[in-house]
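Chain particulars:
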Amino acid sequence: MQKFHIYIETSVWSFAFAEDVPDYKADTLTFFELCKKRAFEPYISRAVLSEIQHADAPLRKRLEELVRDVKPVLLSTLPEAESLSEAFLRENVVPVGKPEDARHVAIALVYGLDVLVSWNFRHIVNIRREERFNAVALLEGYHHYLRIVSPKELIYDDEIS
């Protein structure tokens, strides 16, 4: 069985502590348990760590502890990822006011990861955006196809659960 190399976008980390959406929280915690067991190879970037730093102090501490517990591989933001991110914004794949969303997808694509995991259905996780992210990446010279899914789509895989 292939072990997916997955980029975990910031919203997933945040939903581990979201008391107002118990189903998402439960799925997120199950997902992180699978990551800790290395059912997947988890990755994050400095962009995720930077967004975590903007959380209120008590939540920030819990998020930092979760990141330490899961132990994802930390990726640098390469100039190529910044360029691809700008292409996503220029081509209106995501709104200009959401450069961090474009940056997460660009980093995952530039590093050739298999999957980006997010709870951000508005700007990242939906089939039309996945198609558009991959189409722009192809035009920019990236021939790797990135799947974009929610944690729920990974935790119910019959082969790993």
In short: The mean pLDDT is 94. The first strand starts at residue 5 and ends at 8. The first helix runs from residue 10 to 15.
